[in-house]
């Protein structure tokens, strides 16, 4: 017995067995999803993993503690309001929160706590990190004569120069100034740590949190506390400022929550659009319900397969359900259209199933294979998220093909549907009859139209842009809008390039950054880069510290303390003033460094052992150093925005330092790095997809004529697709270029169904008339499935859906108005 009749008999007479199997598979799939699957919202998984710049960007996100930083922006445009006072009260309230480690609202050198930490904690390690001649010069400031002369000079100038008083407040003996002198060569940028906008209408506050993890659940829990704090603070403010919140925590929280919205909205949108198309085409409700149940089962099984294969799915896979609904329903529409045609002419239920499977079963299998191959090709993209998306949809499409030919028929009622006037079928029948009589006019007109669109595609008319803008990847959320607002008020907040330098120990780390600073200082002087911020002054060298400690052993610190106290009394200064006490703390710190080195056998060079977690200086250090390694980061500002790979390569060559393990990254750098990759992948995946189509269709057609017609139709469709993108102003980016191989795989299906109708025995005109309506409906549902992604928050998914919908619409048009008349012309010959 033929397979189609075996399946028809089984789904007709063994429906309880079919439904029991469906229930068992559904329960198993749900258990896998609930207990074996996690979602992540890392947008960096959208980038190909084989690029050093991408890996460096992921390392920055993972290893540096700014991943736990929240940025508040307080804005107030009223001239009468005291934004400084509001910001101060905001920071005081923040410090009381249990989830806050430290709050920074001004540069450390401008805050009392920062100045105290500099004198009592930072100055000693920085002094010991000086070159030995510079350290010797600094220690001369502790000689009794130098102490007395400096304080006397400052006292004499105090009455005429406010600068002298500032020096007293900050650095009475000048030791801290000597400790910070190397920063002049490492911080060549303009002050990028501005906390107040130029017009004074916005203040920035940076908060380091104590969250244990940086996953979606931890970020959501933290942001609930942040939102609650913001509401409490605003409730107690007579004048309410605008409080913006951004940072990685805010992004992850909002992206992960928008993921749930996208799952529901895109799936619901796809289901509604597909249902409308199905109901208009068939005007049947119960088959529609059966169809949706089967599609839901396909989605559940595909997601469960993802849980078994990947264990964790990225946010981009949220497009799975809506795409699968739009493509999987094609098989159901085609089969039900054929089944309904058989029932309308009096064929019984089981026989109608067998005949529809006999007519379209081979086409469904071939269509599922070509569509699955299109998505499997995403595995070659190198992007983890798109690899997951492609694999899961390919699995879902194959499952849909099988379930539509089995479970769907088991859900269809055996009762014969009442005969009704089918306007869409009648339109298709009249069109087929007209083309059957004389296909050449339609073929010629369609060919000329498609060639004209192809001419627009290749002509210098309009522009098809390849965007390399980070904004094309940035999801729409409040954190993104807040960051954009901050960047408009603080131009220096625009992201520079990041250069990571890794080392195996403290000494090699110091040597590497010393080489980097020397070469980059030359680049700034030569006008090849605008500026850079390097951690070199803060990279402590054990060798330098040992050498300088030997010199320190010859300095009489007790005498220095006594001379300092005597000079203060002589000049009439209040020795109890904190400004003068800081110098004594610095001298105490030098003595403590000697004692610690003697006990430990080596000087302390780890900042985490030197500074408390609450120190405001961590705001600076966290930008430069990873949490638990000798990995450091520098910030480089190029002369201009990187717009192409040539600029990127030239900058890479200039910044690279021989003998230093270096990784350059940053959004603009990465995206410029990926433009050649995107073009290469577009070509590679398209070639792979065309080759697969040729092999599969050659096996199906076994004659060159129909194969040539179908491949020519695909070429014209791609040309029309490019022309439409140019006409409507769509821009290609690193990810929606993947729509091209996808369109090649999905668009070929409709030509396959037309060919199978041509190969049916009997009345060819009737065969074409019965297939044309399901093909149109299948194409419209595929367009609806991809089009539903337009409401997704994720721009990569949204762009992929829009470009794919346009391409599939072009393929559908070409199938109806080019392939069909072309086949008929060949058939008549």
Q: Would you identify the regions where 5 or more consecutive residues have pLDDT less than 50?
A: 163-168, 188-193
Identify the overall geometry. Answer: elongated
So how many helices? 32
Global structural class? mainly alpha
pLDDT averaged residue by residue: 82
The radius of gyration over CA amounts to: 35 Å
Read across the widest sheet, the strand sequence of neighbours is 3-4-2-5
Instruction: State the distance separating the first and last CA atoms.
Output: 36 Å
Number of strands: 10
User: Helicity range of the residues?
Assistant: 55-70%
Largest sheet: 4 strands, antiparallel
Tell me what portion of residues adopts beta-strand conformation.
5-15%
Notes on the protein architecture:
- The protein has 829 residues and is mainly alpha-helical.
- Helix content is 66%, strand content 6%.
- It contains 32 helices and 10 strands.
- The chain has a 4-stranded antiparallel beta sheet, with helices on both faces. Strands 8-9-7-10 form a 4-stranded antiparallel beta sheet.
- Mean pLDDT is 82; it is low at 163-168 and 188-193.
List the defining traits of the structure above.
4-stranded antiparallel β-sheet; mainly alpha; 829 residues; 32 helices; elongated; single chain
Task: Itemize the secondary structure elements and their pairings.
Elements (H helix, E strand, L loop, with lengths): L2 H11 L1 H22 L1 E3 L11 H12 L5 E7 L7 H13 L4 E5 L7 H17 L3 H8 L4 H14 L4 H9 L4 H6 L2 H4 L15 E8 L6 H20 L6 E5 L1 H35 L3 H25 L1 E3 L4 H26 L4 H28 L7 H21 L2 H5 L11 H15 L1 H20 L19 H12 L7 E5 L4 H20 L5 E3 L8 H11 L4 H15 L6 H23 L6 H4 L7 H7 L7 E6 L7 H11 L6 E4 L1 H35 L2 H24 L11 H20 L5 H24 L7 H34 L1
Parallel strand pairs: 1-6
Antiparallel strand pairs: 2-4, 2-5, 3-4, 7-9, 7-10, 8-9
Helix pairs in contact: 1-15, 2-13, 5-24, 6-22, 7-23, 11-12, 12-14, 12-31, 13-14, 13-16, 14-15, 14-16, 14-31, 15-16, 15-28, 15-30, 18-19, 18-31, 19-29, 19-32, 28-29, 28-30, 29-30, 29-32, 30-31, 30-32, 31-32
